[in-house]
Amino acid sequence: MSGADTLQLTPDESAMLAGADGAAVALAMRVVVQLARTLQAPRLVPVASAHIDSALYHGRVSLDFADRLVDLGARVRVPTTLNVGSMDLLHPHYVRTDTAHEREVADGGRSLMSAYVAMGCTASWTCAPYQLPGRPSFGEHIAWAESNAIVFANSVLGARTDRYGDFLDIAAAITGRAPFSGLHTTAARRGQVVIDCTALSAETVAAEAFWPTLGYLAGGLSGTRNPVFTGLPADTGEDRLKALGAAAASAGGVGLFHVVGRTPEAPTLHAALQGAAPEEVHVLDEAMLRSARRDLSTFDDGAIDAVSIGTPHASFDELTQLAELLEEGPPIHPDVDFFVSTGRAQLAFAEETGAAGILRAAGVRVVVDTCTYVTAMLAPSVRRVLTNSGKWAHYAPANIGVDVMLVSMRECVDSARTGRVVLEGGAAG
Known about the structure:
single chain, alpha/beta, Aconitase, domain 3, 3 domains, five-stranded parallel β-sheet, about 40% helix, globular
């Protein structure tokens, strides 16, 4: 029997599909239903919230679809946040518009962002909606797009969302429904690949760069399967789990991970595996981590042109830490551009505490609404960039044609002050 035959709609869902709630809802429901049939989902599931990645401008089709929904009177029916767009609306002068393509992206991006706000979405403009108030609770079904948001919601919060992308995300927000398949189901949340970290030293695990490196390595080992980490601290903070998940989702398409003793569905290894045997077990050593970190970097010493922090968006704690590192000491080298990307809500907290003022006084450009590897912000002359983000290091070389090196936040600051790579152990230069 085909998926089209097994999908069961409720009377309300059938009415939405037939146009009872208007043309916009009917269009959105057609998108949801077709995906559900493709996935052979038995039914749809009501979702409590949505997070929209479609507001990032990828060409005219992005805007045409949004404009069509607006023209039909579309309104979201669940709380809906917005991912980054293609403009920093608060600091438009940060965005380059020197070429015809850059002007098209800036103008189209601004229009696209306006269209999603017109549908009732919250103008959050952040890839880290889990940093906002009212985040999803354990077991709650949601329809989130943006890879790092998906993996954080599933893994750290224990909410349930499958991997949703452009157009399906807003369709779910308008209908309040998503296909009951994939990571919405308990069976699909079973851990599959055990990544044993027990042989690693406490010093290694305590290092900031360990977490994005571990995520990158896990993504390569797991692909789209669910990794289960053993031997990691039970008190690991959310910023480190964010870095792990973002790199794993970028490198391998991971939508859910478990950390035994830390994440909510993994009180034990047995629970994380749902009683089954793992498909694979990988015992990590220091050499594997060094190799993965080298893979994430395309240079390892010498002069630098820029620093980019905040992919995913920097939390308030990270903004505070960066401000503390920059408050005392030498200025940033005049030949180094320094960016930190964050969400408006986190920036507002940093304004209240004075951290944002410290960053600006030090010469840091505080970017909101977008990210430096998807929007033309770095100068065309920039070629060598330091970052503390595994996700930025993974995507930036292909996206914007730069060389990257993955280091810690402190190493970013120390290097920015000298204009050359400075590592905490004293190597490079």
